[in-house]
Amino acid sequence: MKGILTGIGVGPGDPELVTLKAINVIKKTEVLFYPVTKIGSQSAALQIIEPWISAETRVIPLLSQMTSNPEERKAQRLLQSHQIAEVLETGKNAVMITLGDALLYSTYSYVMKTLQEMGYQVSTIPGISAPSAAAASLNLPLTEEDEGLLIWPGTESEEALIHQLERMTDNIALLKVSACREALYKWLKPRQDRICFSLASRLGSKEESLSQDIEILKDPSLPYMSVALLKVKKGKD
Amino acid sequence: MKGILTGIGVGPGDPELVTLKAINVIKKTEVLFYPVTKIGSQSAALQIIEPWISAETRVIPLLSQMTSNPEERKAQRLLQSHQIAEVLETGKNAVMITLGDALLYSTYSYVMKTLQEMGYQVSTIPGISAPSAAAASLNLPLTEEDEGLLIWPGTESEEALIHQLERMTDNIALLKVSACREALYKWLKPRQDRICFSLASRLGSKEESLSQDIEILKDPSLPYMSVALLKVKKGKD
Asked: How far are the Cα atoms of A67, B13, B151, B159 from residue B136, in angstroms, in the given order?
């Protein structure tokens, strides 16, 4: 019988924001895959769950280089899937960990789909997402009453971002803000009386920082892992 | 010194989908508030964390009746806030638990804001949200590449729902689907070739059920706690 892959979201960075379910599966897995951007480099996801890994577990890096080239990305994901499939073929189960939630902008999503297409069984354990963690650190509701929430990647084109901002009616959680900070600043500056802005960077780490001042967007050293929460101001009821 | 309120999201229903942070705080709290819809009725949120409550903890219900009347809702929330403030005044810390994520459509959001306005300190621990849990149970990505995700409450007007559906480009996670199942069905039926539909009900409980057949929306007994994931089909790359 072939093994099963379990994808696990280990949360935004705080080692305490891992679920019991994640820990219980990680403790027992024979093989654990973790993402690295360079061979030999540290993995934030691995650090979070290190205390729960058994000495018997084989821990294997999956190279996940940043690249804007879709063909390169595709080739990389296929390679990752084959690395995992090799283990599943031996009948062993495996775990793949990912930062944040397992199915929100994660490499695991693609690996999961590829392995399913190859005929393998998968299982997923959700994790605390960056928007939920940012809202908690800021003590700010993501949604109230009948509002909606749009989660939007900061890595989309400036045009697409402005299009979404222009039609926002309630709340936007904007991920990877460093990638779009200048466009966001330009749009927000004249709308400060109408839109509440909050930013959380390096969530759950010792360097976590929170701000409600849009001028922070002018800082070129804004961390990549920053989440902005935008909320349309409403009249008091 | 006055006590602090910690709001805790205990996840969608599976007792294993609670975070370590939630458990560590719950174990030590002197006072724990939990939501009930009727005095004397069971609380799903309380059941999830029952194993972690110390014998010394005072466990207090907060009446949270369903009402569509905004004035009644406001009065109820004010009452809840005062109940909690009474404990904080004695210098004791307190915890308020809530299903799912702490700041996504939760009663805690309002109580938190009211207590802040009253001058109390609050702290929040995020939880696994219903969309993240639904995606994991279904093994379906919430977002891929540069897509966005709109989280939308099923309790809004049919008009507002259709407005959002009409302009959807990527993904929608629709909560409390039973409240809008007829309007959703009518809209989806002629668009089945263009929109992928998935539904998860009673997440994390023994009665959890999953479906990808839109005909399930015709069932008047569809559970209130159902999440629909809608995804615009895209061409293969």
From this structure: 26, 13, 16, 30
Summarize pLDDT for A23-66 with one digit per residue, the tens.
999 999 999 999 998 888 889 999 999 999 999 999 999 998 87
Test the B interface: residue of A66, A96, A103, A108 with most B CBs within 10 Å: A103
CA-CA-CA-CA torsion sign (B88, B70, B108, B54): positive
* Site of tokens 């803000």: A177
| β-sheet with A58-63: strand ranges across | A58-63, A31-36, A94-98, A4-9, A121-125
Q: Which residue of B lies nearest to A14 if distances are taken between CA atoms?
A: B21
Q: Where are the alpha helices (DSSP H) in chain A?
A: 20-28, 44-49, 70-89, 107-117, 130-138, 158-166, 181-188
Q: Which domains does chain A have, with CATH numbers?
A: 4-125 (3.40.1010.10), 130-232 (3.30.950.10)
Q: Tell which residue, A107, A231, A64, has the closest CA to residue B144.
A: A107
- B76 interfacial to chain A (CB closer than 8 Å): no
Element counts in chain A: helices (H) and strands (E): 7, 10
Helix, strand, or coil (residue A64)? coil
What gap in Å lies between CA B32 and CA A12, rounded to an integer? 26
pLDDT digits 0-9 by tens, B52-88: 999 999 999 999 887 778 888 889 999 999 999 999 9
CA distance B162 to A73: 36
Q: Do B132 and A103 touch (CB under 8 A)?
A: yes
Minimum distance, in Å, between the CA of residue B183 and any CA atom of chain A: 17
Burial (CB count within 10 angstroms: exposed 0-12, middle 13-18, buried 19+), residue B154: buried
Which residues are paired to B219 by β-bridges? none
Q: In sequence order, which residues have a C-beta less than 8 Å from that of residue B2 and are 6 or more positions away?
A: B88, B89, B91, B119, B120, B121
- Report d(CA B142, CA B20) in Å as an integer: 25
CB B84 within 8 A of CB B98: no
DSSP of B86-154: HHHHTT--EEEEESB-TTBS-HHHHHHHHHHHTT-EEEEE----HHHHHHHHHT--SB-TT--EEEEET
CA pair distance A147, B105, nearest whole angstrom: 9
What would the two tokens of residue B188 be? 């989806």
ipTM of the assembly?
A: 0.96
- Cβ pair A17, B19 in contact under 8 A: yes
C-beta separation of B105 from B14 below 8 A = no
The C-alpha atoms of residue B145 and residue B233 are separated, in whole angstroms, by 14
User: Under a CB-based contact definition with an 8 Å cutoff, are residues A1 and A91 in contact?
Assistant: yes
* Mean per-residue pLDDT, B41-47: 92
